[in-house]
Amino acid sequence: MSYKNYPMVSRIVFGRGSFNQLGDILAPKRLNRKAPFIFLVDDVFKGNSGLTSRIPIAYDDQLLYVSADNEPKTDQVDELVEQIILNHKDRPSGIIGIGGGTILDLAKAVAIMLANEGEAKDYQGWDLVKNPAIYHVGIPTISGTGAEVSRTTVLTGPEKKLGINSDYTPFDQVILDPELTKGVPEDQWFYTGMDCYIHCIESLNGTFLNAFSQSYGEKAYELCKDIFMNGSLSEEEAQDKLMMASWHGGMSIAYSQVGVAHAMSYGLSYLLGTKHGIGNCIVFDHLEEFYPDGVKLFKTMKKKHNIHLPQGICAHLHDDELDIMIDVALGLEPLWENAIGKNWKQVITRSKLKTLYQKM
Ligand code: NAD
Ligand code: ZN
């Protein structure tokens, strides 16, 4: 048995208003005046001078607004890389992603592809990246995915939705400023927050569980319960705690794995474009048989926050469409092995998944 030797984010700042330190943090990392920093910023912040005026642009630095309406695609990464190469003679000093999981994943992927040949789709998988990524910084503006701490960047390619999992994927620097999450709409706050909650449930109830994952998973679970069930937290406390829950949830799955909700949600996302947070919620709502306690509490939280999930999104799908989703879900073998155990193929049949999808 060989244990994973896991890379970590090398530097991290935490605190309300810590975003103001970005300029000081970047300055020593500038390679030369012609090697720009490229800021990939969620376009929800366009015109929000409270944030954009604090981005420390100098010399040839460039700010690119990116939409988070759709999850990142491999050809989107390739286009961004091409645009950066065509616009700047020198290789950038660094890539800074400011946004949710969508933008953070794009920033990681662009930083990798600026240092590696070929197309992003060639690197979907495990440990396919040859050269270290260029310096990259992650600044989350919504909490839950754990993308700020993880070793993957999840991309939808022409053939599959699969991450670039590599030792070069994690950020060199993360800035955790909970103040940046203050404008998140309530339903989105719930969906992305539940991504964290589901990471905990899937990790804590998985067969890969170990003391490392458990220690982070239990902490994140406790924080989630506090945030989503305890009505007496101030808005600031809840923001601070959810940012740390996301971090711990990410650390928990780093050394274990996610499970049924994630496997099935990848299918929804691949076929229907359903986004990760809401997709996980739609699936998880029907997983009582796998996670009875976790789903029970989920339903209570859903009610408490008056969240109404879409119903019947698979009701009108044809068999060939259901087959595509089932193929995507079944392809994620480590997730099933974690959720069910080594004999998972006896339990998780195509007809079982079809029945489950048809309820959603
Ligand atoms: P997101 O980045 O897609 O953003 C969701 C919505 O919230 C968007 O409309 C965005 O514009 C908006 N938003 C973000 N910050 C805001 C703010 N401060 N104020 C107002 N609106 C704001 O959401 P997400 O749930 O964070 O990320 C989902 C993505 O993360 C998926 O692509 C998923 O595959 C990926 N993911 C990656 C990992 C990983 O380890 N790399 C883990 C889980 C999920
Ligand atoms: Zn997730």
What do these coordinates show?
There is one protein chain. The chain has helices at residues 22-26, 49-52, 74-87, 101-113, 186-204, 211-229, 235-254, 260-272, 276-284, 292-304, 319-330, 333-340, 344-347, 350-359, and strands at residues 11-14, 37-42, 62-66, 94-99, 125-126, 136-140, 154-156, 161-165, 173-176. By secondary structure, the chain is of the alpha/beta class. The protein folds into 2 domains: 11-181, Rossmann fold, CATH 3.40.50; 186-359, Dehydroquinate synthase-like, alpha domain, CATH 1.20.1090. The strands form 2 sheets. Strands 1-9-6-4-2-3 form a 6-stranded parallel sheet, covered by helices on one side. Helix 5 runs parallel beside helix 7 (235-254), helix 8 crosses helix 9 (276-284) and helix 8 packs across helix 11 (319-330). The longest helix is centred in the C-terminal third of the chain and has 20 residues, at 235-254. The radius of gyration is 20 Å and the shape is globular. The model has no long low-confidence stretch (mean pLDDT 96). The site of zinc ion has 6 residues, from helix 5 and helix 9.
What is this structure's SSE topology?
Blueprint: E1 11-14, H1 22-26, E2 37-42, H2 49-52, E3 62-66, H3 74-87, E4 94-99, H4 101-113, E5 125-126, E6 136-140, E7 154-156, E8 161-165, E9 173-176, H5 186-204, H6 211-229, H7 235-254, H8 260-272, H9 276-284, H10 292-304, H11 319-330, H12 333-340, H13 344-347, H14 350-359
Helix pairs in contact: 3-4, 5-6, 5-7, 5-9, 6-7, 8-9, 8-11, 11-14
Bound molecules: nicotinamide-adenine-dinucleotide (NAD) and zinc ion.
Residues 42, 44, 68, 71-72, 99-103, 105, 141-142, 144-147, 150, 152-154, 180-181, 183-184, 188, 192, 195, 275-277 line the site of nicotinamide-adenine-dinucleotide.
